[in-house]
Design brief:
The complex is a heterotrimer of chains A (251), B (356) and C (177). Chain B has helices at residues 9-19, 34-43, 57-69, 80-95, 122-126, 144-161, 171-175, 216-236, 256-271, 289-296, 312-319, 339-351; strands at 5-8, 24-27, 50-53, 74-78, 100-106, 137-139, 164-170, 177-180, 208-209, 240-243, 250-253, 276-281, 283-285, 301-306, 326-330. The mean pLDDT of chain B is 96. Chain B has twelve helices and 15 strands. Chain B has two domains: 5-236, Rossmann fold; 241-351, Rossmann fold. The longest helix of chain B is centred in the middle third of the chain and has 21 residues, at 216-236. Chain C has one domain (2-174): Pyruvate-ferredoxin Oxidoreductase, domain 3 (3-Layer(aba) Sandwich), CATH 3.40.920.
Chain lengths: 251, 356, 177
């Protein structure tokens, strides 16, 4: 009896991610959701520039590699090319989504673009070797903030869910984490809802996944999870930041 | 023949794009090309197409990238500084072998420059439309009819060779009205199923649209393949027009509005007994090298007329292997050479005599 | 036969429209035509001009830098373009807005108080077409009998009430003096 297998939407290839990195879990959750909703044949994923740049090799649906920060614009073009059929998701890191691609993120949300955005926030630029990200915590040491992020000189982290919750066009914003079983289950629920919203034509959904980067944080995978719980989660509280249709559904 | 209508160049171009099957337009406002966006905003919703005003030129070209990746005919239009912003996206289109049409209604530069007609983006269009090893097919209309014909042709070439094509126009061509026929004939369809990211329907392996190749030998291989295609284009797609070249001793080389002004000057010079003609490149890339090189064996000198500090002149000198002198007649910053300016340069060319 | 026509005035005087009227005549007569407006900040309330070329042979430059017909509907236009006209050119001046005479002696000058006539006749805003009517009479750029046919093409369907008024304005100019 098979008790555990790879989701069909996840390609049977080795991932390049570092040991202990949570990208693997998040990829799997996205793939499980695609399987469960039965949408692999009509899904087009947009990979970013950053650690998940090779995501186009890891999903079995059609994939497009976008320029740094431009995934929401590319997704817009794909979605508009066949809005009835195409299910479009972007998979982006913090540098991609919240620094170089801020305008594309905000305006895709403002347009209520009917797409799903998976946003992986690990507070650092991983692919380029650990530089300060827009989400790097105050005081956090990185390659380009070697004395700790000095907010008097480089300002404060961008809280994406909080920021977008003020954008009228956004439909659904939730921040989740994958640091324990309970949170993984909740993350999957949120990701599924973000895809279901698109199927239902409800508009822009973004799931922020607070993640670890053991390699660039200089911690073991286990310590990285502890660091996430002690430092990241207090600054980036988990929860639903906006759900336009929640009230109606509750009634 | 279809009845001719009087249309502004920019509007005629937009209608031609629609007739070519383009249903996806993404743009950002900038003078002097706004008529294109305005026309698309009006027409697209009526025919089930997409008009979207993006948050920036960068977003607009990436929306084009997305629609093109999904296998649709997509376009954007802008003017000089806006094209500079699109250059990253243009490079990605080229690197991912995606067809698309990019319109540049040029204005004066550098920097914010001005809004009057210019041809100072020749280098940008033909040499460095973005980073990396790639080419754009560059088409240069010299009438409203050519705005239409080359838009139609531009989409076809883009699909045929799977690469971005640029229509390099200027404010004069965009703003002027001339009688134009919109009878374009059939749109040729291309099968995009082997590469377009439009959903696998779970019937095939997934398609990946991508320009990232970490292994240098792999990237080199793709670049080599792309340049083999470019060689075919250079062999098969060169377009130019000749005007009074049969017995010419002086050859003007000019495109777009500069060619129109030159035509007047040629007629005047001929009245004064000077044997002058013109070779007008219609494709700026591929550049009509062979015809120019052949002309260099017959004429005594060339005059390059352009609305820039002298950009195309370098390609002329290369094409003719510097066999004959090439004089420059130019205005820049949004100024246009007058017939008299060109005429006096023709006279100068006539006086410098024979071989260099 | 080629006519190089330059129409100039302030933005809002209908300069571009009157140029379009001439261009449409070229279209229905199957002549070569080009129409080129000045564009940019000048459009927004400043001076405005429009080049129209009607020809029986291929048109080169669409820019009229040396007109053989000039319509000047304000002083800056006359100041700017009088010296650009070819010898023998016909210059039409709206004398209700321009209080000086044409200085050159090698051109033919025609004066018509078009703006005043328009307001007297309840054709306010149509001085441009009065100028066109007078110009057709004196310069013969297009046949007068085409006026109604061309006007029907150039006045948009939504503004059909303007059709008769425009025709009347052209008539008024044509029958001046």
């Amino acid at each position: 009896m098979v008790v555990f297998e790879k989701p069909h939407a996840l390609a049977d290839v080795p991932l390049h991610y570092c040991p202990g990195c949570t990208h693997g879990i998040i990829h799997r959750l996205v793939a499980e959701v695609i399987d469960e909703l039965g949408i692999e044949g009509r899904t087009i994923g947009i990979a970013p520039v950053g650690c998940s740049v090779f995501a186009y090799n890891y999903f079995n649906c059609d994939m497009i590699e976008a320029a740094h920060g431009r995934a929401p614009a590319v997704a817009t073009g794909v979605k508009r090319s066949d809005p009835e059929n195409n299910i479009v998701f972007t998979y982006q890191g913090d540098g991609d989504l919240a620094a170089i691609g801020t305008a594309e993120t905000v305006h895709a949300a403002a347009r209520g673009e009917n797409i799903t955005v998976i946003f992986v926030n690990n507070a650092i630029y991983g692919m380029t070797g650990g530089q300060m990200a827009p989400t790097t915590l105050p005081g956090q040491v990185t390659q380009t903030s070697p004395y700790g992020r000095d907010t008097s000189k480089v300002g404060f982290p961008v809280k994406v869910c909080e920021m977008l919750s003020n954008v009228d066009g956004a439909t659904y914003l939730e921040r989740v984490a994958v640091n324990n079983v309970k949170n993984v289950k909740n993350a999957k629920k949120a990701i599924k809802k973000a895809f279901q919203n698109q199927l239902d034509g409800k508009g822009f959904s973004l799931i922020e996944v607070v993640s670890t980067c053991p390699t660039n944080w200089g911690l073991t995978p286990e310590k990285a999870l502890e660091w996430l719980e002690e430092n990241m989660l207090p600054y980036y509280p988990l929860g639903v930041y906006k759900d336009k249709f929640a009230e109606k559904e509750d009634k | 023949m279809a009845e001719k209508v009087l249309m502004k160049g920019n509007e005629a171009l937009a209608e031609a794009a629609i007739m070519a099957g383009c249903r996806h337009y993404f743009g950002y406002p900038i003078t002097p090309q706004t008529e294109i966006a305005a026309y698309m905003a009006k027409r697209m919703p009526l025919i089930g197409g997409t008009f979207l005003q993006a948050e920036s030129e960068i977003a607009a070209i990436n929306m084009v990238y997305g629609a093109a990746a999904a296998g649709k005919r997509a376009m954007t239009s802008s003017s000089s500084p806006g094209i500079a912003l699109k250059s990253e996206g243009i490079s990605y289109l080229a690197g991912s072998d995606l067809p698309a049409l990019i319109i540049n209604v040029q204005r004066g530069g550098p920097g914010l420059g001005g809004i009057q007609p210019s041809q100072s983006d020749y280098f940008q269009a033909t040499k460095s439309a973005g980073h990396g090893d790639f080419r754009l097919i560059v088409l240069a209309p010299a009438s409203v009819q050519e705005m239409v014909d080359l838009t139609f042709k531009g989409f076809d070439l883009a699909d045929k060779y799977r690469m971005p094509t640029m229509l390099l126009s200027d404010g004069t061509m965009g703003q002027m009205m001339e009688p134009v026929s919109l009878d374009m004939g059939e749109v040729k369809e291309y099968d995009k199923s082997s590469w377009a990211a439009c959903g696998t329907k779970c019937e095939r392996e997934h398609n990946v649209v991508n320009s990232l190749f970490i292994q240098p030998d792999e990237l080199e291989k793709y670049n080599f393949e792309r340049y083999e295609r470019y060689a075919q284009i250079e062999a098969n797609e060169v377009m130019y027009d000749e005007y009074r070249m049969d017995d010419a001793e002086i050859c003007i080389v000019a495109y777009g509005v500069a060619a129109r002004v030159s035509q007047n000057a040629i007629d005047k010079a001929r009245e004064n007994g000077i044997k002058v003609g013109m070779i007008r490149p219609i494709t700026l890339w591929p550049f009509p090298k062979a015809v120019l090189n052949a002309a260099a064996d017959k004429v005594k000198s060339f005059v390059c007329v352009e609305l820039s500090m002298g950009q195309m002149i370098e390609d002329i000198e290369l094409a003719i292997r510097c066999k004959k002198p090439v004089l420059l007649c130019n205005r820049t910053g949004g100024m246009i050479p007058t017939t008299a300016d060109v005429l006096s340069k023709i006279e100068e060319a006539n006086n410098i005599g024979g071989d260099k | 036969m080629t006519h190089q026509i330059l129409l100039a005035g302030f933005g809002g005087q209908g300069i571009l429209f009157s140029g379009k009227f001439l261009a449409y005549d070229g279209l229905i007569e199957d002549r070569q035509v080009s129409w080129l407006p000045s564009y940019g900040p000048e459009m927004r309330g400043g001076t405005c001009n429009c080049s129209v070329i009607l020809s029986d042979s291929q048109i080169g430059s669409p820019i009229v830098s040396n007109p053989d017909v000039l319509i000047a509907m304000n002083l800056p236009s006359l100041d700017k373009f009088e010296n650009e006209c070819v010898a023998g050119a016909k210059i039409f001046v709206d004398s209700s807005l321009v209080d000086r005479k044409v200085e050159r002696t090698d051109v033919e000058a025609y004066y018509i108080p078009a703006t005043k006539m328009a307001s007297d006749e309840g054709l306010s805003g149509l001085a441009n077409m009065i100028m066109i009517g007078y110009m057709i009479k004196k310069a013969g750029v297009m046949p007068y009998e085409n006026v109604e046919k061309v006007m029907a093409k150039v006045v948009p369907a939504k503004k059909q009430t303007m059709l008769a008024l425009n025709i009347k304005a052209v008539e008024l100019g044509y029958n001046f003096d």
